[in-house]
Design brief:
- The chain is α/β, with parallel strands linked by helices.
- The protein has 2 domains: 36 residues; 276 residues, 4-Layer Sandwich (Purple Acid Phosphatase, chain A, domain 2), CATH 3.60.21.10.
- Helices cover 28% and strands 21% of the residues.
- It has 10 helices and 12 strands.
- The strands form 2 sheets. Strands 1-12-2-3-4-5 form a 6-stranded mixed sheet. The chain has a 6-stranded mixed sheet with strand order 6-7-8-9-11-10.
- Helix 3 runs parallel beside helix 4.
């Protein structure tokens, strides 16, 4: 045993330890975590004023960033089937279906993504918003944008309703609620940033909320979390993606780059500010590079109206 301790000390002092640890971390972050791990991240909450009789479960899919070999149509279909296995009342898709980096060997076309998502099943339906990458370019970063025409068609054929500054009323057990979908907040960012444009997106939160015809609770779908400070108390829960949960999280330090880009506290997870609730998904794919570290691809499961005991159980308390 003493000899083993001496050998480990020699190895650590030899100068080989750090390079080998770095290489192993790189292999894991590039080859293992982004491609072979899929977790279900569960949240359970009862927002202020939520009807006691309304119990809902959502499966949330965000930021797939399709493209071979990392996010193939086959893998997207497996993700959809995993979402079905949660038995959600509705499936919610939060945008960025197009590839997000240049390390793609073959495009996954919108119709292929739609076919993969066509297996989604939920009694109250499937609803989607579009993301910035769906507007900025085509299936590859080097492909021209078609203005999301192909994605709208593909999602519609898959039975998924795209919501842009629009709302749909749903009901469960006789209790109504609203799903509100916001148009992307960065639609024109690439084209307008050099012109000092003040408005970068097509989002119209006031216009979307004006379509609510009663005081039933509303759930807001928005690709980016930037809208959250403007969300009124009328919105019981805001669901977002875009940040990838930081994508790369350093041990002890967390999502350093994510905090700089999006602001501390608005990168990942359940955010509560002024009694208002937001959940930011870590998503499934990657942008910039096909790397994930300490933020595995995830499907989000949200339970609304759970009892205190159920909330404690899901939170691991």
């Amino acid at each position: 045993r003493a000899q083993g301790m001496i050998d480990r000390r020699r190895f650590l002092s030899s100068g080989l330890a750090l390079p080998l640890i770095g290489a192993a971390t790189g292999v894991y972050a590039i080859g293992v975590e982004p491609n072979f791990i899929l977790q279900v991240k569960r949240y359970s909450l009862t927002p202020p004023g939520w009807p006691a009789s309304l119990r809902l479960r959502f499966a949330v899919i965000s930021d797939i960033h399709a493209g071979e070999p990392f996010m193939s149509a086959t893998r997207i279909r497996r993700i959809a089937e995993a979402a079905n296995a949660l038995n959600p009342d509705a499936v919610l898709l939060l945008g960025d279906y197009n590839a997000g980096h240049f390390f793609v060997t073959k495009a996954v076309e919108p119709q292929q993504i739609g076919e993969a998502f066509s297996v989604l099943r939920a009694p109250l339906g499937c609803y989607a918003v579009l993301g910035n990458h769906d507007w900025w370019h085509g299936p590859l970063l080097t492909s021209p944008s078609d203005g999301t025409v192909a994605f709208r068609r593909a999602l519609r054929l898959a039975g998924i309703q795209v919501l842009e500054n629009d709302a749909v009323a749903l009901a469960k057990d006789g209790q109504r609620f609203w799903i509100v979908g916001l148009a992307d907040q960065l639609i024109d960012a690439m084209a307008q940033i050099d012109n000092n444009a003040q408005k970068l997106g097509g989002d119209d939160l006031d216009g979307a909320l004006a379509k609510l015809s009663d005081d039933a609770p509303a759930i807001l779908l928005a690709h980016e979390p930037f809208i959250f400070p403007a969300a009124p108390d009328r919105v019981a829960l805001t669901l977002c993606g875009h940040t990838h949960g930081g994508q790369v999280n350093l041990p002890l330090l967390g999502p350093v780059v994510g905090d700089l880009r999006f602001g501390p506290g608005h990168v990942y997870g359940h955010v509560v500010e002024g009694g208002r609730h937001m959940i930011i998904s870590g998503g499934l794919g990657e942008s910039v590079a096909p790397v994930r570290l300490l933020r595995p691809p995830e499907i989000v499961e949200v339970e609304l109206g759970a009892t205190a005991e159920e909330t404690a159980r899901l939170s691991g308390l």
